[in-house]
Amino acid sequence: MADSNAPKPSSSVKLVLLGEAAVGKSSLVLRFVNNDFQENKEPTIGAAFLTQKCNLPTRTIKFEIWDTAGQERFASLAPMYYRNAQAALVVYDLTKPTSLIKAKHWVAELQRQASPGIVIALVGNKLDLTNDGTGAGGGDAEDAGAEDPGDARKISTDEAQTYAEEEGLLFFETSAKTGYNVTEVFTAIANAIPETSLRTARGPGASQAASRTEEQRVNLNGPRDPNAKETCAC
Amino acid sequence: MSFSSLTSALPPMPWSPPATEPQPKSPPAAAATTAPPPPAPAPASTGRKFNSPFSWLSRSSSREPPAVQHAPSARRNTASSVATMTSNPEMMLSKLEEDKNGEGRDNGSRNSLKDRFKALRMIGEAVPPPEEDKAGLAATDSGESGPAAHPPLSPLPQSPNRNLAPGTASGVTAGPSSIVDAPVDWDLWQAVVNEGPAAVARSSPEDLNKAIATGIPNAIRGVIWQVLAQSKNEELEAVYRELVVRGTDKEKKKDQDRQSSGTPTSATVNGSAKGSASSASSVHSENSQNGVPSPAEKDTESAKKAQAASAAQRQKKDKEDLVMLQKLEKTIRRDLGARTSYSKFAAAQGLQEGLFGVCKSYALFDEGVGYAQGMNFLVMPILFNMPEEEAFCLLVRLMNQYHLRDLFIQDMPGLHLHLYQFERLLEDFEPALYCHLRRRGISPHLYATQWFLTLFAYRFPLQLVLRIYDLILSEGLSAILKFGIVLMQKNAAALLAISDMSQLTAFLKDRLFDVYIDSSPSSTSILENGFFGSSSSSIDKEVYRADQLVRDACEVKMTPETLKVYQVEWEEKTRAEREREAELEALRASNASYAVRMRKLEERLQEVDAEQASLATELVRTKVDNDELRDENEGLRIQVQELRIVIEKQPAEIEAVWQLERDDLMKRNEKVHEENQRLEKELSELEEELVQTKMQYAEVNSQHETLTRKWTDLKRQFQ
Fold it and tell me: Where is this region: Disordered (chain A) (predicted)?
């Protein structure tokens, strides 16, 4: 993946995942990064960090993914993760109406507090629990238990889509379990990142200087350049 | 030393009590029961304490009496000893035992722990002399349970891992691995239990530190933890029992029972349970300190009153509460099962309900905290060592006296404080590593959050986590900082060699303990590892040098003063930050108002501008006009000058003309005068003429008259 024969410009993008607890943030990342799925994944405490590359025709995007804990309690940690993020994935659970409300809160907070050019994608997860899901039925044991096994959908596509259009968000319905639409979300984000906000990998000197200045500003972005360096190496 | 081989042969003894639990609920649970037993705290082993051979002697000699007492006392304390043994999944059983204990509430919490400790110690110490032990065992067995206890005994000692079904036999012999090096200092533990940790810490601090550093024997870990935390509290346990059934059918039944019977005990329970629901948790923590049921009477009265007065109201509120409760339960349930750490241990399966109960009860007990993810992880290791009521008390204690609560309340101030302290300490101890991580933007928030919120129980091997708990309970939460620092120190080289951020974070999250993997574990430590049954996850397959870890952690020189300094620093920083934020907010507000004002001013400016523009054009026009006027003026002035010249010239001219005219007139006058004179002459001439004429006329007239008379005379004559 990394060894594209033609050296395409490669750049790092900081992406943060936000959303209510147990909507499947970590699972989406796990699917995207390792193409894997675990039932009953343990809750995230604090945050997790992962990287994955995304190849576009003209360039390579290296996602630095910050996966946050969803429980309300951990909200005070979130700002340091979405600070300087160029992209955000706000995830909700298609089978849980409150999760969309929470998602809207996150979108509002991001629009208010995060960097102005941030690309936000609204993602409705657990499509496998609905009739549209490729592998309908079965379902995620944890939530589907009490619900009608056929279609547990509680949030219509229209509702979420309308909201996403109003706010200018990318919108997808996914299933981390089946893998449906997961890569598409990240590819769409990669495409939506404006060329100008990308910092391509530079020589070591330049990148170090850049990271140093960033450090002085005490932001979490510092590592981007050193990482970009590695992208070159591999 | 042959002695060690002897003792290692003995560990099976402690086995018997756990096996006394007669009801195997389910196969895994039954297997689990075997796990936490009073292991081989075999005073075994090659003395690490060669320097004090006499202590050996004395201990071995002192071992005799308790061993003799063993049987009777075990019988006396059957209930309590069994209860401790059941620090395992058999919740129902332990509950029963607890209820039994509850009747003897007056003894005070310390006593019940003391009794339990005594029993455990006896079992532990009785181990060495096999014959006696068998006798003791027989006694215990006959007293309480079937023969189920025996089978695993024989094979174990020689080759611990020979027949080890995970989670079963292996656990039996597992004591703290420290026993390999050092004998269990039963007397010290006894002192801790009897006099309290504070007293022991005063009298022989080094011994206590050493003892904790070498590990609390598994058998008495549950008891010692509670003693260290002073958490045992019957009152609170009653509260727990009340809370745990809230919203279930059992509660309704209990309610009915209570109404019909109205026994003082249940009323007390009711009262305090209510208190817990509504009042601050601090009340309870105080209660837990005293461990005295003094408020019971008051509670009873108030409870009765409240019952009578607000029964209906309560029912209404209950309904609302029920919805909240169901939500809470759903949230907690979601995080159970495979989602908690150590769930892969056989023993853990039976503990899930207990875990659920403790989490739920705590959430109800302390509304300021509620249920926070992370609790489920940190409760599990406690549940491995004691029944759920006691685990609940210990949790309450940890939350309040150990200030774990600050980490879980809204905005998590405690967490941020500890992370800051950790960051500063890391800077002090490992500046290079600190810079390395910082340059890559890896703040402790990313990897150390889970250490603090789950006391290392989130991802790390249980063998080590239990030891970490030992130190935390005896030293407080700052022990986490020590462990954190030690782990960073030991891994510094490895971490410095990694520069990829994702690899770094992965390492920090999962592999920090790898440096403590024991590559050539002794048989005892292998047993230790399997204590709670093997887990399928790889980290728990390894054997760790737990003693080394704890020893290293204890060696970290971290003075309370430094921590205090960092705390103050942190507080100042947050205050400064808050002030800055407030200032920023104020600035933003004033900025907004200024913006409004500016907009207004801009509008006015625009108006003024327009006005000015019009004025300017007017001015230009005026100027133009002015110029024109000036020109005109100039013209006029010239005209005036000309006129003035004209005017100045005029008088002379006029004079001249006038002169001429006058002369003319005079001349004319003269002429007229002459004429006049001439005319006067003429007139006088004429008058003369006239007089002459008149005289002529008179002469004529007189002639005429003379002629007329002559005529008349003549006429008469003729007549």
Answer: 133-152, 199-234
Q: In residues, how long is chain A?
A: 234
Enter the tokens of residue B358.
């403790």
**How far is it, in rounded angstroms, from Cα B655 to Cα B84?**
153
- Show the tokens assigned to A25: 């943030």
Burial of B586 (0-12, 13-18, 19+ CB in 10 A): exposed
Interchain proximity A222–B440, CB inside 8 Å: yes
Tell me the nearest-neighbour CA distance from B168 into chain A, angstroms: 26
Residue A94 has phi, psi (to 5 degrees) of -55, -20
Tell me which of A220 and B354 has the higher pLDDT. B354
Range of lowest pLDDT (B167-171, B226-230, B560-564): B167-171
3-state SS assignment for residue B136: helix
Q: List CB contacts of B25: < 8 A, sequence separation 6 or more.
A: B89, B90, B92, B350
Supply angle C-alpha B7, B10, B14, rounded to 5.
125
User: Is B443:A46 a contact under the CB 8 Å cutoff?
Assistant: no
Are B123 and B133 within 8 A, CB to CB?
no
CB distance A64 to A13 below 8 Å: yes
Greatest Cα pair distance, chain A, in angstroms, is: 59
The alpha-carbon gap from A21 to the nearest alpha carbon of chain B, in Å, equals 9
Rounded Cα distance between B182 and B44, Å, is: 7
Round to whole Å and give the CA distance between A15 and A170. 14
Domain boundaries, chain B: 9-254+308-401, 413-555
Which residues 329-368 on chain B approach chain A with CB closer than 8 angstroms? 331, 334-335, 337-341
List the single residue in B339, B411, B446 with the smallest CB-CB distance to A49. B446
Q: What is the pLDDT of residues B383-440, one digit of tens each?
A: 888 888 899 999 999 999 999 999 998 888 899 999 999 999 999 999 999 999 999 8
Q: Does B408 touch chain A (CB under 8 A)?
A: yes
CA atoms of B310 and B305, how far apart (whole Å)? 8
In this prediction, residue B524 has a pLDDT band, given cuts at 50, 70 and 90, of low
Which among B338, B416, B440 has CB closest to A226? B440
B85 vs B120: CA distance, rounded Å: 9
State the complex-level ipTM: 0.77
B413-555 has CATH 1.10.472.80 classification:
yes
